[in-house]
Amino acid sequence: MKLNDRGLLIVISGPSGVGKGTVRKALFDMKNHNLEYSVSVTTRAPRVGEVDGKDYYFVNRAAFEEMIRQDRFLEYAEFVGSYYGTPKDKVEEMLDKGKEVVLEIEVDGALQVRERMKDAVFIFLVPPSKKALYERLSRRGTDTPEIVNKRFQKAESEFKLAYKYDYIVVNDDVNNAADRIMAIIRAEHARTQRTIQKYQQLMEE
Question: Does domain 9-38+99-204 have CATH number 3.30.70.3450?
């Protein structure tokens, strides 16, 4: 029996290049989960293999800015010339259905969500070392050397914000990192502050 009917909002965040997408995929490949991925909106061009509506909703800048004016984002940020945002209505709809909603977003966006969704679970994904992060950024081959350096410099400032998160998970091995995140999700469902009201109701029946 579930002691909390509303789903959990799980925010997986961290500097660019730490492997957020890869860990999220490994998490969703696990069996017997109730996870739903919140697809973000972006103005950047699709990368090879990315599918509109599955990896991102790809829109132009004017459309994105209109969504900002209509307050349709749970969070949004501009990074290296492109907007990224989380559509608010879709997240709330999934949470109301009892789904575990996973956001995979940049640090700026995660801190916005922290202000608006106090009961969300915030997980800061980090690389095993700065050297490993730089190698990952360079190896992707999707950015120019200048952008790689910008991402790395931004990452160095973002590491200092780890204290704003509930958990820190080191991505030393993708499957290990996914296992740790799943353990966090299961533990959060048993947290007293989330379940005490429903528990007391059950004890009164």
Answer: no
